[in-house]
Amino acid sequence: VQLQASGGGLVQAGGSLRLSCAASGRTFSIYTMAWFRQAPGRDREFVASINWSGVSSYDADSVKGRFTIFRDNANNMVYLQMNNLKPEDTAVYYCARGSYPYSDSKTSFGSWGQGTQLTVSS
Question: Strands 91-98 and 109-112: what pairing?
Fold first, then answer.
């Protein structure tokens, strides 16, 4: 599988941005898709996931209430809508594919995209 993330950029604090991830393959709908992010000097951390049935989960402390993950199975796409962005959201954002329906561990995701950079200015 190939995952291609896009949509990153430079945005002011309080602004919004939508990340996109295009996946190859014919069985996209059966997998859990997720977004992780990695800031300089920090470990890659879970942001959000959505499983095959559309159930989503979020890192409550950092993004819940501001970010929304959703998917379009017909077009093999997963999105991350990010609102009320903060400087601490600055990171490289990665989309990932996994088989477990509920997991926030990066070890549960076997396929990764190349990442897209988000920079939020204060």
Answer: antiparallel
**pLDDT (tens place) for every residue of the chain, 122 residues total:** 899 999 999 999 999 999 999 999 888 988 999 999 999 999 999 999 999 999 999 987 889 899 999 999 999 999 999 999 999 999 999 999 999 888 899 999 999 999 999 999 99
CA triplet 95, 68, 61: central angle to 5 degrees? 90
Tokens standing for 71? 């998917």
Instruction: Tell me the sheet residues that pair with 17.
Output: 82
